Amino acid sequence: GPEPGWISPRLKNKELAVRMMPDALASGRGGDDEEAAAQRPAMTFYAISDVHVERKENMRWLADLPRFEQSAVLVAGDLGVSLHQLEQALRLFREKFDYVFYCYGNHETWAKVHIQADQQIANYDDSWEKLAALRGLCARL
User: Fold this and answer.
1) What residues contact 115, with CB distance under 8 A and at least 6 apart?
2) How far apart, in whole angstroms, are the C-alpha atoms of residue 60 and residue 54?
3) Which of 29, 87, 97, 125 could hold 73 in an S-S bridge, CB 3.0 to 4.6 Å?
4) What span, in angstroms and rounded, lies between the C-alpha atoms of 96 and 99?
């Protein structure tokens, strides 16, 4: 994998290295404690999309994430399908990050899905009704 302080997402099977923090912090060469503290960011921002917690292994991945101190995350759509799944996932993100910004995706708007294991999807006449319920859920969280 990449060196500390970098993440390496894949795009069309090519690894892309993205810098996450200054060299001194990534390498552990922050100098004295005061200098390192001055270089440490006050807040670290993350972004993720397409978590798809309707897949059990993805919900497990989310549950197993560590706590990210002084952090914010943008969850940019396709988090899950049912409101039950979305509530679980958003609660987990709230446990892991100080601030959570969420924007729904097309999967969240599915109102008529024929999945017997998840009856909570089919309780809505249309996507607008489901989105109203989703907004209510977010307001409660």
Assistant:
1) 81, 121
2) 11
3) 97
4) 9
Using CA atoms, how far apart are residues 137 and 141, in angstroms rounded to an integer? 6
Residue 12 has a CB neighbour count (10 Å cut-off) of 5
- What whole-number distance in Å separates Cα of residue 68 and Cα of residue 45? 10
Q: Furthest-apart CA pair in the chain: how many Å? A: 61
CA-to-CA separations, 34 to 26, 38, 39, 44, 63, in angstroms, rounded: 16, 6, 9, 19, 34
pLDDT, one tens digit per residue, over 6-60 is: 555 555 666 555 555 655 555 555 556 676 666 667 888 889 999 999 899 999 9
What is the 3 state secondary structure string of the chain?
Answer: CCCCCEECCEECCEECCEECCCHHHHHCCCCCHHHHHHHCCCCEEEEECCCCCCCHHHHHHHHHCCCCCCEEEEEECCCCCCHHHHHHHHHHHHHHCCEEEEECCHHHHCCCCCCCCCHHHHHCCCHHHHHHHHHHHHHHC
